[in-house]
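Cross-check.
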Amino acid sequence: MSAGEEQLRDLYAQSRTIAVVGCSPHWPNPTSVVPAYMQSEGYRVLPVNPHEDEVLGQPSVDSLDDLAEPVDVVDVFRPAEEAPGIASQAVRIGAKCLWLQTGIVSEEAARIAEDAGLLVVMDSCIGITYGELGLGIGVKAWKEARIAEGA
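Predicted model, tokenized:
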């Protein structure tokens, strides 16, 4: 099921944990900024990146299958060709939503996730959408404030 505005509001309200596949420590890349923003909004961010030991003060795991706690949203910063495999993992771990970031579209991943009852968002930024719904200042304003502070 694709997400409408009310579904997105409910998702943000009911979610606490976001696994970020492709999360990185490389500021100011979106793979770092967006997860940091969601963390600043009170979400627990679980980094998934086999090339990092730790990101945003959290241990990084190699894959979704390596996570030891429940996940509400799987946020994906990986190429579209990897999305179907990530969608299958998201289903396996019991996630509620598969979120493919801006520029990532995979109908196959969407089908896998939707067939298992997950909410699917494609080609959209979880941090920008958060701000557009009026739930916070949004990732762009947050990033600008951090830069102005010298962070």
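The longest strand covers residues 17-21. The two ends are 39 Å apart (CA to CA). Passed to J.P. for a second look.
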